[in-house]
Amino acid sequence: MELKDKVVWITGASSGIGKALAQQAGKKGARLILSGRNTARLQEVQKSLSDPGNSRVLPLDLANLESFDRIVQEALSAFGTVDILVNNAGISQRSLIAETGLDVYERLMHVNYLGTIGLSKALLPYFVENQKGHFVVVTSLMGKFGSPLRSGYCGAKHALHGFFDVLRMEHEKDSIAVTLVCPGFVNTDIARNALTGDGSAQENQDNATANGMDPDRFARKMLHAIQRRKMEVNIGGKEVSGAYMKRFFPGLLHKLVLRSQVV
Ligand SMILES: NC(=O)c1ccc[n+]([C@@H]2O[C@H](COP(=O)([O-])OP(=O)(O)OC[C@H]3O[C@@H](n4cnc5c(N)ncnc54)[C@H](OP(=O)(O)O)[C@@H]3O)[C@@H](O)[C@H]2O)c1
């Protein structure tokens, strides 16, 4: 599928993977809608695009579920249509279960799961009416197997797989595609922004994230999968093998993950 003139709506476009994806998709001639909470940073990203005039900034907070019908109308009126919604925005966690408040779990589920399915559900009737559309969902390898300190994040990302696998089945007849993108470690601010047990941001970078894939390289691989309308893709370094180990050797994966962590 060619991206030229396609309208691609990216959440979490103010930073990391979403920013890199916007820049790469812009180079391929896509018309872009850039969403996130931080309007100033979205405008900076817009300026960095090869053709800033071919993009719009549309601020949104995924925790504000009531706003989605209005936001979808605004997205549709930006260019008259939306071809691809990239549900990329998300927030991670770095805290032990025993030290994490339920309010932190609520926030992780609200932003990562309810916000993502809510926005997609608000756009779905438009895709059904037009008998076409593409939902891309950035989950994580943590949507396929667990790792200490990320219990709520893992729960929310696993839940996304369940929901969007069903959406793909229920709406295949409407020619609606779903691509689940599962990153391994990518060098972004995800660890700095991760919630700790009291809900404050960790603020420090993790070694694994700092040594992760470059976001531009990641975005190129992700666009390749989107253009091929793949059902699911794992993108990362050797950590990707965890997804296969979970399926075939879950006991071994359990031991290896514990050995690689200091909990
Ligand atoms: N980097 C990795 O190693 C890695 C690994 C696996 C999965 N992922 C996934 O990749 C996606 C992108 O993360 P990243 O690595 O690029 O991290 P990032 O640099 O922290 O970017 C996260 C993005 O999400 C947006 N966001 C956060 N809360 C939001 C909210 N309530 N409403 C709207 N937007 C919100 C942020 O924008 P504002 O602050 O402007 O709202 C930001 O643009 C996430 O879904 C993450 O879980 C990343």
TrEMBL record:
Q: Which UniProt keywords apply?
A: Oxidoreductase
InterPro entries xref list: KR_dom, NAD(P)-bd_dom_sf, Sc_DH/Rdtase_CS, SDR_fam
Superkingdom as given in the UniProt entry? Bacteria
Domain spans labelled Ketoreductase: 6-189
Write one Pfam family the protein is assigned to.
Answer: adh_short
Q: Which family does it belong to?
A: Belongs to the short-chain dehydrogenases/reductases (SDR) family.
* Classification via PANTHER family: DEHYDROGENASE/REDUCTASE SDR FAMILY MEMBER 7B, DEHYDROGENASE_REDUCTASE SDR FAMILY MEMBER 7B
Q: What is this protein called?
A: SDR family oxidoreductase
* Organism (species): Robiginitalea aurantiaca
